[in-house]
## 1
Amino acid sequence: MKTFVKLCWIFLFVAGKLFSQQSITGQITDGSTIHVNPVLIINISAQKSSLSTMSGNFTIDASENDEVRFVKEGYYRFEKKITKEDLASPLHIILKRMEIQIPEVEIVYKPTGNLAKDSKYLSESGKLKALKSDITMYMKSPLNEPMPDHTISKTFTGHDFNAGQVNAAGVFKAISGIIKKASKPKITKADYNETQNFLTRVKSEINLDFLKKYGMDEEQIDRFLLYANKTRMLAKNYRKDFQNDVVEYEIKVAFGEYRKLHKLDSWEK
């Protein structure tokens, strides 16, 4: 009799678990008839994920009040809190495509209407392209030979009336350099409070949207920023001299390594 009662309790427990498991289904489009695929669907609350099919359909385990996120590269991320109605009928999720700005190209040459002449002007030969590339590389490379100073030999110059006089411009330039160097804050190790204040400023002033397209939530972003601060010594180097473009560059360099270590490439797909 005891064994029978025990089996009944086990049966009721398993049945309760099975009936409590729910899922949501639906289809993902861009607002028209075009299906968006594949899309990464993440149940943040239940720590589960799935991919939509080629036809834009999806299914994922979810319960009421779960937070579900839809992520696709090139589209704005969409988040939804699941309700009872969502569990009862299929969902229609619309992802909006991100705007891509194409730089304006100014054409100086005015076409003559002669196709042969215009095509020769507007197209570059392979040799010309290679020459331009070589010139660009040469101009960017450091000098290996000293440049001529273009001075006149003292044999042909008259008496130097400035000899022994103070060069006011040189003195002013030297003093300006000393003041500029002295005004730059000294780099020191950041304590806990300084580090936290620095990271808070990073989140408020630096655009971190590129992290979110990998499905990273706020907790994961905070974890990455701690990694970036440790590997790039951000708070130590930049908390006193906060330059947005420099800090943003350092963060992106750190993310390049972080992305490889945590294999975040799969979140883009």
## 2
Amino acid sequence: MGTVPPTGSVVADGNQALERLRAGNVRFVAAQEQDLDEGIARRIAVSKGQHPFATILGCVDSRVPIELVFDQGLGDLVVVRSAGGALDQSVIGSLEFGVAELHTPLLLVLGHQRCGALDATIKALDKPTAHPGKLGYLVDTLAPAVRQISGKPGDRLTNAVHANVTHVLAELRQSPVIAPLEKSGTLHLAGAYYELDTGKVTLEP
């Protein structure tokens, strides 16, 4: 796949990758984004190969553009997005490709404040109804997290987002591709939460 370095310094492991994402988010929150190399020379360089430092699963929400949130540029991140971070074969396979074929040392699952997909799932479970197309599949996929937080104190939607990040990580750890990489120490898995109001990303405990 080539050895073109990412926009910033090369990372050695998952912890360094997390730190680079954290630093980028701090810049984003402060509106002090770096002058990313996204010009012609960089486009040509990454067209011949890539060496991203993190694979990230995020939501399709238009208010959560992953590269912008972490202040990263061309060739830096493998980004996979689905509504609510819902997993299916294509999403899991794409994440497996990022960590196994592109050798990213970090796999991050990013949930976010006021997630529309999880809000819709809550409403669908409260008042079951038929859904056209594949919307019902999304509800079924996200439902375990919603059921898990039933009756717990606090905001129901926020609780569901956090629970879903935990659920997705648990599911990914069942992957015969991802699990051995984490066990060997070459891959770090983490969850995080993005606040729409502030732009801040916090790691899940």
## 3
Amino acid sequence: MDRAAVFDVDGTLVDTNHLHVTSWWEAFRQAGHDVVMHDIHRAVGLSGHDLIAHLLGEERDTGQDDRISAAHKTLYATYADRLPALPQAGRLLRTLAGQGWTVVLATSASGGELDALRRAIDADDAITATASSEDVDEGKPAPEPVERALELAGVPADRAVFVGDTVWDMAAATRAGVLAVALRCGGIPQADLEEAGAAAVYQDPADLLARLDDSPVARLRA
């Protein structure tokens, strides 16, 4: 029977979360906002405008949102040619694909940013499809990105696993009825990931790969 492994990308397969934090911090600073980096880090994983709303509040001057988001994109783009994949990220995707899994990415990235992330992972031969921010109306923690990934894979929720690194990932997966597995390489504490719905937590892609046969993923054997 078909089964799908759906992956977040930033902080899960590519070590970019702190690059996003720095870029958002500078974008906020340029717009006259003093936002603590710790708070930005905990918001990474939300879509751009949701992240701005989360950090500045609903009473903010929303006329600044597009300018802040554009500044973040410009600042983050300076890292595009040297994004570091996390340990064994590409090998994990290839291993799952080799075992018959349909591998799908579900990410808020799109366009050139997504292209740079895929170059970093260097496993396009294992990736069947990608659900990007351009494919959904609502980003995580809404379930829509995960549900769109399932549509692309052609499998029901009970035949899929979602791997991510933030509480927003875990919330999106559980709301979609998908088994949620978390990685700590994005910098979020294990207790927070478990509280958000993670069935299991691993250090990084290499740790999940090494323990794959004993992981909750093994429950979905073909």
